[in-house]
Amino acid sequence: MKKIWNFILPALSLVAIAFSVAAFNKAEAAPIAVGQPVDLTYAAEKALPSVVHIKYVQNSKIKTVDVESDPFSDFFSDPFGGFFGRGNGGTQKRQVQTPKREATGSGVIISTDGYIVTNNHVVEGADELTVTLNDNKEYSARIVGADKNTDLALIKIDGKNLPAIAIANSEDIKVGEWVLAVGNPLGLNNTVTAGIVSAKARSLGANGVEAFIQTDAAINRGNSGGALVNVKGELVGINAALYSQTGSYSGYGFAIPTTIMNKVVADLKQYGTVQRAVIGIQGGDVKNFIDMQKEEGKEVDFGTMEGVYIDKVTDDGAAADAGLKKGDVIVAVDGQKVTRMAELQEIIAKKRPGDKVSLTYMRDKKKQTETITLKNEQGNTKVVKHADLDVLGANFREIGKEVKSQLNISYGLEVTKVNKGKMSEAGISRGFIIQRVNDESIKTIEDLQRVVKEASTSKEPVLYIQGIYPTGRKAYFAVPLEE
Hints:
Layout (H helix, E strand, L loop, with lengths): L13 E3 L24 H7 L3 E8 L3 E7 L2 H7 L13 E7 L3 E9 L5 E4 L1 H4 L4 E5 L5 E3 L1 E6 L4 E5 L21 E6 L7 E12 L9 E4 L11 E3 L5 E9 L8 E6 H14 L9 E5 H10 L12 E6 L4 H4 L7 E5 L2 E2 L3 H9 L6 E8 L2 E8 L20 E5 L2 H7 L5 E6 L3 H5 L6 E5 L2 E2 L3 H12 L5 E7 L5 E7 L3
Antiparallel strand pairs: 1-15, 2-5, 2-7, 3-4, 5-6, 6-10, 7-8, 9-10, 11-12, 11-14, 12-13, 13-16, 14-15, 15-16, 17-18, 18-19, 19-20, 19-21, 21-22, 23-24, 24-25, 25-26, 25-27, 27-28
C-alpha cells in the first residue's frame, strides 16, 4: 500500500492500552463562571452513563506450530524419525492448545439503539464480547466493523433508549482546555480522571492514520476505547494509547479525535469497511526533513518551515494526476493551513475517494494551488467493499488425517466444488488443496475468509494461492478479486 507516512517517528515508548455517528443531541451548557475554577462534576455526570465496560474472550484453540526438533527426544518417540529427516536442528509440526484469553477495555455508546465505538485492539480476535453498562446491565455484542489504520471499531448491542453521548466537533477544542478521561482502567470501573489538552494533531507512529489529541488526564490499561470529553460532557475523542516507559501512566495519554471517528463510523455502518482517500504521496514534516539535511551538512530552503515535504509521488495517485513532484511542500488543503503530516492526515481522513480538494503547495519558494480528485488505495474512485468467499465460487473443507498422511502435509483446505466465479476463471479445479494464500497458511475456512477480506480492500486485490493436487503435483495460481 502506498500511503502518506511520517519521516521521523518520535523516540517514544508507546503502549497500546488493553484491552462511537448517531447521537448529535445537544448538551446543556455547563455551569462555568468566568474567573472561577471549572466544575467538572457536570461533565462527569453527563458522560459516565454513556461509557461501558467491555470484556473480551478468546477461546482456547488447537494450533499447528513449527517447533525446533530435539533428536534425542524424537528418537524415543520415533527411533528413525530423529535421525532420518526430522531432527538434526530442523523443525517439526506440532499441535498445541492455546490458552483461553480474557481482557477488558472500554467503549462509548453513540446511539440510543446500541451502537458503541471502541478501539480495534480492544475487540480484535475476540470470540465473545460482553458489554456492561454503567447501571450494571449486561449485553452480548457483535462487531459491525473495525479499522486497524485508525484503531477504531464499531460494535452493536441489542438495546433501546440507551444513554448515548453527545458528540462535539474535536476541531473546536483548544490546547489548555479542560477534559475528562472516562473508562475502566486497571479493573476499576466507572473511573474519571481530569487534565487539559496538551497538544493536537500528534503523531506517534502507532497506526497508519494519526492525529491524536494529547492530554495529561491519567490514562491506563483498560481506558482503551473510553471517552475523552469536554467540560460539557460531550465526546471529543476516543482514548487509545498512553506514553510510558513502564507500561502505566506517566504523563500523557492520546485520543482519536471525533472528526476521524465520525467518518470511520459512518463508513463501517454503510459499507462495512472504511472508504479511505489517499493523495498518493510519501513524505513527512518539512522541518524534520530540513533537520536531517542539516545533519548531513546540506542546506535547503523551501521558503517555509511548516508543511509536508513530498519525498515520493506514486504513479497512479491523485497527486501525480495534478502534477505534484518530489520536493514540493504541501502547506494548505481547501484553504486550511497544514503545518505537519498529522494535520494533513486528519483532513484527508475525513474525505472519501472521489472527493475533490484544493491543494496548496510550495515549489521553488512560490505557492501554487491545484484541485485534485482523491483516490482509494487501489488507484480509482470506486467504493471499496469487503469480498467474502462467495466471490470465489467454490466450496471448501478442511482435509482429514488420511489426506494429510497420503500427501505428507499437515494442513490445507480442499476445494470440493467449483461453480462460476473467480476460482473457475483462474483454472482451479475440484480436488485442489489450498495451503497458502498471500504468504499466509490456510488451515481453516475462517483463515481463507480473513485473507480474502483483507486482500479485497488492499492496494493489490489479488489472491496468490499455493497448493497441491491429490496426485502430489504442486500448483500456484493468481486470482484477481476486482471485477
